[in-house]
Design a protein that fits this description.
Blueprint: E1 3-4, E2 10-13, H1 53-58, E3 61-64, H2 78-83, H3 94-118, H4 127-156, H5 164-177, H6 182-194, H7 210-214, H8 216-228, H9 232-253, H10 295-314
Helix pairs in contact: 3-4, 4-5, 5-10
C-alpha cells in the first residue's frame, strides 16, 4: 500500500480504513463514553478536522502515528484543556518569583567568583585544561543565565507576579543584564502570540508558503529536513546556530519575522524591510514593529542595554 509519512503522523491508504463511522464518537483515547461533545468552534481543536480529517475521510484513508497505530484528531475545546489544569498552576506569587531570581543571580555570582579566583595559570598551568574548564564555565553560566532569561520572559507575560509594576521592573533589570531589550521584546513577543503561524503577522516564526515548498530547492530542503529532523547532528547544529546567531539576527534585522511592514497601521513600514539596513529591528522607536505609543518603552529598553554595556566595558 502506498504510504505518506510524517514525523507526527502518517496517512495510509487501505480499503478498510473508512473513518466515517468513528467521526461520531469521541476522538480522545481514554475519554469517558458519556462525555458530552462540544460543538466545533474557533476555540476547539476539532476545527482542524475541516482541513485535515475531512480530506482523510473523503479519500477513504486513515492516519497513523509514528508507531503505526491509528491516530484520531483530538476534539477538546480550549476551555476543557484549561479546566484540566490544576487551579494552583494559575496562582502567581511575587515572593516565590523573586526567590527564583535571587537563586539564579546567586548561582551566576558564585560560579563567576570561583572560576575567576581559582582558574588561573598559577593554579592550572595547562593551557588546554584551562580552555576546557572555561568552556565548562561558559556552559554552566549559560544554564543559569537561561533560567534568569525565562523568569524575565514570564515577567513579559505578566505571569511572574500579580503586580504589573513588579513584573516589568524585574523583567527590565534582568533582561537588560542579559543584553535583551525587555520592553521592545515584550511588545513584539505579545504580537507573536496573537498571530502565531500567521503568514503576514507572526513576529517570530513565519511558515513557508506553498510556493516556497513547491520550488525545487524548497522540495529538497524539506525532504532533507524530514530525513534528518531528529538526528543528533542536525539538532546540535540547529541549537548552535540558533543560540549563537539566531537571536542576534532576530533582534537586529528581524530574521524569521514577517516582512509585510507596508501594512503597519501608522505608515511606519513604508519602504522598510527585514535585513541589514532595512529599518526593522528591536532598537529603533520608529521601527514598524511598534506603534508611536511604544517609543518611550523602546528607548527605555535601549537605556538598559547601554547601562549593561557600559558596566561590561568598565569591568
Amino acid at each position: 500500500m502506498p504510504t505518506i509519512t510524517h514525523r507526527k503522523s502518517g496517512i495510509q491508504n487501505g480499503p478498510q480504513a473508512d473513518l466515517s463511522a468513528s467521526s461520531s464518537s469521541s476522538s480522545a483515547a481514554g475519554s469517558p463514553a458519556d462525555t458530552p461533545r462540544q460543538s466545533p468552534s474557533s476555540t476547539s481543536l476539532s476545527s482542524l478536522e475541516s482541513e485535515i480529517a475531512m480530506d482523510v475521510k473523503n479519500a477513504n484513508m486513515k492516519m497513523l502515528d509514528g508507531y503505526g497505530n491509528e491516530f484520531k484528531l483530538p476534539d477538546f475545546t480550549i476551555k476543557e484543556i484549561r479546566d484540566a489544569i490544576p487551579a494552583h498552576c494559575f496562582e502567581r506569587s511575587g515572593i516565590r518569583g523573586l526567590a527564583y531570581v535571587a537563586r539564579d543571580i546567586l548561582s551566576l555570582a558564585t560560579t563567576f567568583y570561583f572560576f575567576n579566583k581559582y582558574l588561573t595559570p598559577e593554579n592550572v598551568p595547562s593551557t588546554a585544561l584551562r580552555a576546557t574548564l572555561w568552556a565548562v564555565y561558559t556552559f554552566v553560566q549559560g544554564l543559569f543565565g537561561t533560567g534568569l532569561w525565562v523568569l524575565s520572559h514570564e515577567c513579559g507575560h505578566q505571569s511572574f507576579s500579580p503586580s504589573k509594576i513588579l513584573n516589568d521592573t524585574v523583567g527590565w533589570f534582568c533582561h537588560s543584564a542579559l543584553l535583551v531589550p525587555y520592553f521592545s521584546w515584550k511588545i513584539s513577543h505579545g504580537k507573536h502570540h496573537k498571530a502565531t503561524g500567521h503568514l503576514e503577522r507572526d513576529m517570530v516564526f513565519v511558515p513557508k508558503t506553498r510556493q516556497q515548498y513547491a520550488s525545487k530547492l524548497g522540495y529538497y530542503a524539506h525532504e532533507l529536513s524530514e530525513l534528518l529532523e531528529e538526528t543528533p547532528i542536525l539538532t546540535a547544529g540547529t541549537m548552535v546556530g540558533q543560540q549563537l546567531l539566531g537571536w542576534i539576527f532576530y533582534i537586529t534585522v528581524n530574521t524569521t519575522g514577517h516582512n509585510c511592514h507596508e501594512r503597519q497601521s501608522e505608515g511606519r513600514g513604508k519602504g522598510k524591510r527585514n535585513g541589514l539596513g532595512g529599518g526593522v529591528n528591536h532598537f529603533d522607536p520608529s521601527s514598524p514593529l511598534y506603534e508611536s505609543k511604544d517609543s518611550n518603552l523602546v528607548l527605555l529598553s535601549d537605556l538598559g542595554l547601554a547601562v549593561t554595556a557600559s558596566v561590561l566595558v568598565l569591568i
